[in-house]
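Input.
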Amino acid sequence: MARKLTFKFPEELFGSSFLPYLECLTRIQLFTGNRGSGKTTFLQQKAIIFALTKKYFRLIYTRKVSENIRDSLFQGFKDIIHDWSLEKYFKIKESEMDIICIPTGNMLLSFGLDKPEKLKGIKDPTHILCDEMTEITFQDYSALIALLRTSKTAITQFWGTFNPEYGFWGRDYFFADSESDEIPLGVVPSKGDDVIIIKGSFKHNQFIDAVAYEKLLLELARGDENKLTVWIEGNWGQSITGNEYFTEYKKSVHAMQVPFLADKAVHVTFDFNTVPYMTLLGMQVNITAEAFEIRVFREYCLKSPLNSTTAVCKKFLEDYTPADLLYYGDASGENNIAGKGNVTAFDDVRIAFFHLITDASNRVLKRNPPILKRRDFMNDILGGRLKYEGLPILLMIDESCKELLKDMLKLKMGADGKKLKVKVKDKASGISYEELGHTSDALEYMIVQLLWDEFSKKQNK
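Output.
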């Protein structure tokens, strides 16, 4: 007769990121994070414990391809059984890659999604462990979930692991904030009460020398920004097509903490599109012995009902009171606003900042520079090929500038070489708008004017 066993497993056996979820009752449990976070090992440990201690437990452990199971999940289970000196409690079937707990009769049964015939012999599973969920399709996931039906226990669960690779269908399906590229550590907001998402990190895995492991990952990535994002930061990867607009942008070089410098003048620049938001960027220039720094310290991308020139200026003034201010932006902002007579968008800027500016503060160009020339100029700056009075020009963008960083990373180049401004529709209002390109336009207006002599020299070559 099958019997439950009683064991006491010390907490130090488990990675600290995931230990609190050992007895989690949520039906769908998803574990993500960077490489080496220990997510798969934790779920395998959990399965071994359940096999030993639960009255009835039958796990299907799976990956997309059967051949990949033997050296990953199956070997992982065997390693835990050996490391915990539990060999006498388990019967291991090498050919089938099935593992039976002898005292309880509970089972860990392997299954590759490419060989569905084995499922015919598996009855009443209580749990499914799917490793590397980025390998499977949504249809695969749906088929697995459909297997979780049994009258032998009240609790059935799906356990899944994945690295946050670009294109994973689960991003939109499971994540409450599917737009954000950053995934917070710990419990991540999810869609539905029956789903929990937990992100861990190798930096909290006491079984890894975090410093040495990060060094190894850096070597393996060979400067690939996408791999660094997924492997080390544990954040969503990006689509790398070779058709990026800012070909020389590197997150590791250009995105950082950029503190406000109280003794430096402030440069503000505008893009006057109101949907999806109105844009104001706050920047400063700092010249050091090493570089000519263009420092983007803050962005204001205000949505309706605050998507107006007056509102973004007011918000900026609530946060900063610069001693000296210069303003830049889209040259069309000097055209009259429809329905407002002779009033322009820059008139609203001048009214908002009247106590901070003089006539010399106006740095708006008469016309916007050609976009192809702006593109090449920006990439020369990003690539470190342009100098100002012998100093390399360094563009620094604060990590809080989410929309600008999204532009720098995701904006694609169209067939005409210009920005590919794809239109999307707001579900609530039905309004179509260009999703990307607004903040980078504002940035370019300011940088070209600021470095007008360098820009002109380059165009005349």
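The CA atoms of residues 17 and 200 lie 5 Å apart.
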